[in-house]
Amino acid sequence: MALFRSIVTVGGLTMASRVLGFIRDILIAAILGAGMLADVFFVAFKFPNLFRRLFAEGAFNAAFVPLFAGLLEEEGEDGARAFAEQALAVLLWALLIFVAAFELAMPLLMYGFAPGFAATPEKFDLAILLTRVTFPYLLFISLASLMAGVLNSLGRFAAAAATPILLNLCLIGAILGLAPLMASPAHALAWGVAGAGLTQFVWMYVFCARAGMPLRLRRPRLTPTVSRMLKRIVPVAIGAGVYQINLLIDTIIASFLPTGSISYLFFADRVNQLPLGVVGVAVGTALLPLLSRQLRAGQDVQAMDSQNRALEFAFLLTLPAAAALMVIAHPVIAVLFERGAFGPGEVQATAQALSVYAAGLPAYVLVKALAPGFFARGDTVTPVKAGVAALVVNLVLNLALMGPFLHVGIAMATVISSWLNAGLLAVILMRRGHLKIDGRLRSRLPRMAAASVGMAVVLLLAAPGLEGMLAGDLGARATALAALVAGGLGAFAILAQGLGAANLKELKRFKKKNVS
């Protein structure tokens, strides 16, 4: 399994998904703006996705993948398949009960998820209705995530990485085809989410079967391996899902702020999610099964090298991305979303949140790259300590900053708590001897930072010369933004090469190197 090749595969398909996601969000912004319908749909969309990221992609994958990869190494495909089928049966029945209970309790749960909506009965009732429509998405996407863990452990990353593309296609189809037939575009989008879950489940089952791993539905049994997996899930839900829990806290508090605040944070986070998804998710997805198999095989030196190279790759891409988004947040938001019901005021408010979120981008990715160092060793308890500390700091700062800074204060709190979380994870791994920064990373990290700062200066100097185009029509703004992005990329590439932060020849060799 070539780590670089796996990261590029996942990152490339994630990039395609993010591009479609931007098209989706552009359509949503144009048709819903940042008003009541937008706020309600984003709550209905976030509710099942919160649990998906915490349990399906976060806790379940972190607990399932190391065990499945270890069984592949020790017992072969038959033993691993038996475990996967047992885990599938337990997950299915647990989710059926969980989803049914939440559907019945949705009015009460909405008081906890968006309590500020209760002041407007129409808004509150619509949020309950649409969330009931979207919530079954959790069942299907969780089962799809288990099958994604199976394929990733087999070194097949493409099918799983492509599943978000299906979600975006379903939502785009709902906007363009279903919206005229429904009570509102928000209703159409909610049904699009539900349909996407079923589509993604069928997609993953087909590819598991093609890979020689068709999973049969067994009678659920708590075998020793399944019990061990379940014991790891709860703490990982906190440790791996801190970022998502922070977003939940953000949503709860933002529901008390002026109308549109939830939407500003959503659109800003969506832009910030592009590098986070392409780099962070790709690194974490590729690194976890690799570390699990290397450690199970006793290849400690190779595992340490894999960890360092993953961190190096993450820093190389996230530092310049963070610097760029902080500098050109306004033209990015204007080009992507300023049309229809999304006007200059919404652009300014969203850009302010994006420039703050971008400051935490390296931290978000670091958490994704450091967490496998715990999960691959079967440690799902220690990250809870870092996660709880970050959550407490986020909550306190949210309450302190929301008054003077409104939605921007919420973004500030998220950034600070994310850096705290990443720092704690790194320190704990280092103290245990599980992370030793090698000479190459130690030498190149400050050079990457210097190249990123230099690129930001170039963008700051170039932006005034494009003010006329940035204030023009959509075509002129898009051209100016493309020029800024191209100029920034070129500046960083030249500075990184000149300062020794990266070497094109080494990257090519790293791509070919098999690190398994």
Written description of the protein model:
With 516 residues, this protein is mainly alpha-helical. The protein has one domain. 83% of the residues lie in helices and 0% in strands. It is built from 20 helices and no strands. The protein starts with a helix and ends with a helix. 54% of the residues are buried.
Keywords:
single chain, 516 residues, mainly alpha, 20 helices, 83% helix, 0% strand, globular, disordered C terminus
Termini gap: 5 Å
Order of helices and strands: HHHHHHHHHHHHHHHHHHHH
Shape: globular
In percent terms, what proportion of residues is strand? under 5%
How many distinct folded domains?
A: 1
Sheet/helix structural class: mainly alpha
- Give the % helix: over 70%
Count the E strands: 0
Q: Name the average pLDDT.
A: 83
What is this structure, in a nutshell?
The chain has helices at 3-32, 36-104, 106-113, 121-134, 137-153, 158-178, 185-210, 224-239, 242-254, 261-296, 300-327, 329-337, 344-359, 361-375, 382-405, 407-431, 439-462, 467-470, 474-499, 504-512.
